[in-house]
TrEMBL record:
PANTHER family: HALOACID DEHALOGENASE-LIKE HYDROLASE DOMAIN-CONTAINING PROTEIN 3, PTHR46191. This is Haloacid dehalogenase-like hydrolase domain-containing protein 3. Transmembrane segments: none annotated. InterPro entries: HAD-like_hydrolase_domain, HAD-like_sf, HAD-SF_hydro_IA, HAD-SF_hydro_IA_REG-2-like, HAD-SF_hydro_IA_REG-2-like_cap, HAD_sf. The gene is Hdhd3. It comes from Nothoprocta ornata.
Length: 235
């Protein structure tokens, strides 16, 4: 079945790219630059709280509520610092702007080991490639800055698509852009529900990048590292 594959779609965060340091460290450094001293651990847990509350209230960047990713993210950053006791609105606004900017640069993101080589290898074997990611519009810039954008024919983000994984419609959009049938495509990602199971529900093949995979993932579809993909795809 694998021989009929024409298109590979890729998740990005923790599949191809990862944060260089924990969010709390980045936030603490930004605050420190403005003379505000806060503990990275406190900021990390405040961020998780602010982020999940925002996700619940305004899913997929609040597109349905007319919010959009920029305002969505600025609010998450401000709320993170509010939870840590920062009250000055001007300081909050400056922190939000500077962190929003930092998080679309190669200062913040780095390629996972094997990412460049694996993507190059897939292209050399003639696979067409695209991205399917729950991410905002900054992803194009992030991929360019990290020197990965040239591997892909298209980038579908949940903000642009209007649907977030595991919604099958984001995969259907990618299949349309790739011009292939679902059974001719495979998705590679690190999340069992949003990547592996969701792509399969859309009729695609899929591979799970996971150091430790959940028991329901068939062993032959699990990649202990990115480099394992090329061996699975055959000569």
């Amino acid at each position: 079945a694998m021989l009929s594959l024409r298109l590979l779609t890729w998740d990005v965060k923790d599949t191809l790219l990862r944060l260089r340091e924990p969010v709390g460290e980045s936030y603490a450094a930004a605050a420190g630059a403005l003379g505000v001293r806060l503990r990275p651990e406190a900021l990390g847990s405040a961020f998780r709280q602010a982020y999940s509350a925002q996700q619940r209230r305004f899913p997929n960047y609040g597109l349905a509520q007319g919010l959009g990713s920029r305002r969505w993210w600025l609010a998450v950053v401000e709320q993170t610092f509010r939870l840590c006791g920062v009250r000055d609105e001007r300081v909050l606004a400056r922190l939000a702007e500077s962190l929003y900017r930092d998080f679309c640069s190669a200062r913040t993101w780095e390629a996972l080991p094997g990412a460049q080589e694996t993507l190059s290898g897939c292209r050399q074997r003639g696979f067409r490639m695209g991205v399917v990611s729950n991410f905002d519009r900054r992803l194009e810039q992030v991929l360019s800055q990290c020197n990965l954008r040239h591997h892909f024919e298209f980038v579908v983000t949940s903000e642009d698509a209007g649907f977030a994984k595991p919604d099958r419609r984001i995969f259907e959009q990618a299949l349309r852009l790739g011009g292939v049938r679902p059974e001719q495509a495979a998705h590679v990602g690190d999340d069992y529900v949003r990547d592996y199971a969701a792509a399969r529900a859309a009729g695609m093949h899929s591979f799970l990048l996971a150091a430790t995979a959940p028991p329901q993932a068939p062993a032959e579809h699990v990649l202990p590292s990115l480099g394992h993909l090329l061996a699975l795809l055959g000569p």
